[in-house]
Specification:
about 650 residues, Nucleotidyltransferase, domain 5, Actin, Chain A, domain 4, 6-stranded mixed β-sheet, 16 helices, binds adenosine-5'-triphosphate, binds magnesium ion
Amino acid sequence: SIPFGVDLGNNSTVIACARNRGIDIIVNEVSNRATPSLIGFGPKNRFIGETGKNQQTSNLKNTADHIKRILGLNYDDPDFEIEKQYFSCPLVKNNEGGISAKVRYLGEEHEFTSTQLAAMYINKIKDITLKETKGNITDICLSVPVWYTEKQRCAAYDACKIADLNPVRIVNEVTAAAVGYGVFKANDLPEDEPRKVAFIDIGHSSYQVSIAAVKKGELKILGSAYDKHFGGRNFDYAIANHFADEFKSKYKIDVRENPKAFYRVLAAAEKLKKVLSANSSAPFNIESVMNDIDVSSSLSREELESFVKPLLEKLHVPIEIALKDAGLKTEDIDFIEVVGGCTRVPSLKQKLSDIFQKPLSFTLNQDEAIVRGNAFICAMHSPTLRVRPFKFEDFNPYSVSYFWDKEDEDDDHLEVFPRGGLFPCTKIITLYRRGDFEVEARYTNPKELPIGTERVLAKWKIEGVVPSEGENTIACKLKLRNDPSGFYTIESAHTVEEKLVKEVVEKEPKEGEEEDEKAEPEYREVKKLVKKNDLKISCTSSNLPEDHRNNYTEKEQQLTNTDKLVAETEDRKNALEEYIYELRGKLEEQYKDFASDEEKSKLSDMLMKAEDWLYEDGYDATKAKYIAKYEELASIGNIIRGRYLAKEEEKKQAIRQKQEE
Ligand code: ATP
Ligand code: MG
């Protein structure tokens, strides 16, 4: 399969594939290099990506966006209090305590979990990629924010599975950008002393920074930090709220009370923000925003900066945390590589540069750096492709401990993967057990986590523990792993027992003596720990149970088929309409000498009836009916066309013969 990378943005999503010995950005059905991240639900089908954006204003209540922010989040999470203000569709608590969107779809009310929504969107992205590459897409490397908790990473993983993809790796966004940097700039990188680079991504909703040590063929993330609520949308809301206030006094309208009006103000605010990145002031006009009132105003860059002052004032915080983790100071940083759409804001760039007291580098493509890394990482995991070897280790932002019921051990838990460690990483622990037991992984320190995060990550049952004869307990060795996707697992478990084993005694040849190679080896008996048997591990993680997930996959397949049928029906309808006009035109021109008057009047009559049908009874017909109607017309149209083509061929032959003479 073609290695497939997806940078699922809060605002827009970028797709890349590794092919033709490079990384290609995949454009969508309207040739855009980024696809809006949203889903609209309609009476007959879903509108995902571009089509969703086109009908968003008229379908706000049934449009789900900001999906990435609610994926794997609990409804009762304090963070959701902040998050929900950004949504235009109603959100409800589902049976698992998660968040579902409540929308009207196919003429009735439906609820879709955040994982389902993400799966729908990823499935669409897959479809775009399949069409564009005519390829075989099965493996995916998806990037997620560094602040995603285990549960959110699991939800991202499940969403890929529901979209019938194989997630070979879930990777942190900034890490992916850094990997791209390491791989595609390999020739400029030092071979020995690593270069220290700060990678900064400020997107639509969040701000992340990672400090990396990069050298040829190798990368280590030394520190990562974030502000979960810092991005372009904060600017948009600041502008929109400013104008909402202004219009209240100036025009006596409250756009906040009218979702459609507020959405239009918000969309215009985003445009204005972008203009202000290049100009010092810009006009702001919306026709008939509400109550038939046209609004008109303007904004200067300075004013915008004053609105977002509190935001800009906390810009330095994540950088300081990341630097501290990395054990570095701003002056130790060689380069500051900046990505993400929001870093186009001049005051932000200026402030970042001031913090480091260095100019910023923009050697990475701001919008495509992450996805390029993703596609490369996916290719790394491909068994058939050979890619340049590149080793990278990521930074573990949250400490994780494993707990068990204490028996003969000194402790009932151990912090196995501390914050600041690198992953992937494997550690082995030994527990002395009388029988089967359970282990639980928990976040050690709630202070390190986004507020409200559940402590428990996963639970395991370890079965098959039988102490040796005459013993109370047996040593169980557990292989604990923080895997390449950042998931915490128990990879394997087995018991060991002490056995007397024969061992060759190594003899140091005495000085001056030749080693006697023919001498019989001498054995001694020693007590050694040897593996007794493998233990059975069953895990309850934050991932969806398999039957659950399979249900969702099946359902997603059904919804996709419905969408496909609607699209195909629309295509057939358009084809019929086009054919009617085309045939009618030709009947008066090219075909006019090739049909009898009787045929012409019969066909004209049929065309007129078909046209009437299209706008009345046939307005909302089935695909089969459109095809049947088309074929009915074509059965006569094609006879006439055949005569016309035969005559044309005759003419061509005649010309050719003339030329040969
Ligand atoms: P996130 O990373 O938070 O999930 P995302 O990846 O979708 O979101 P990006 O595509 O990196 O976000 O950035 C989108 C944001 O950048 C939007 O808020 C957009 O308005 C803003 N943006 C894009 N171009 C400019 C510009 N020229 N000036 C100011 N802001 C811009
Ligand atoms: Mg982004």
